[in-house]
Amino acid sequence: MQDRHALAAWFKSFGVTSVAMESTGVYWVPALKSREGHGFPAVLVNQRYEKNVPGRKTQVGDAGWLPQLHFYGLLRGSFRPEAEIATLCAYMRQRGRLTENPAAHIQHMQKTLMEMTLRLHHVVSDIIGATGMRIIRAIVSGEYDPEILSTFRDTRCHSSLDTIKAALVGNDCHARAASQVAQQLC
Fold it and tell me: Is the pTM of this model over 0.70?
């Protein structure tokens, strides 16, 4: 982070007024945001468009070629939505992933529970049902006491409190580490 700020200050010392960057993967995101944060208008260039302009075609050559093309106005910037729209797109993309293949995400939750040495999925027919989700949310919130966790049992659950409590006796050390992973799943 500090290096990106130092680079922006170095750019300013040379009178740089705008920056062009090639969009490869997601590596450009922190660098571009840093430049914009320091007041540099940034043009994000799709590699496919940049390759249409005749000239150098190597990574080292691109380092000198991109600024020159940008200076002459020969690069077309990629569409980048406003910050609020980009955030909404990220939420929608994540929601799409979760709804397209829910079975895989449930399996991730079951695996995390197994890593925590909790056998909830053996005593609750559906871990994303009322009882399962109440218990998982309590674990994510930091509750590990089987006595307390078993009280989250829904009245319609067929397993008794004692059965659920026995399934929730796990390795506390693993539980704390794995709950961080579980937070990403819920």
Answer: no
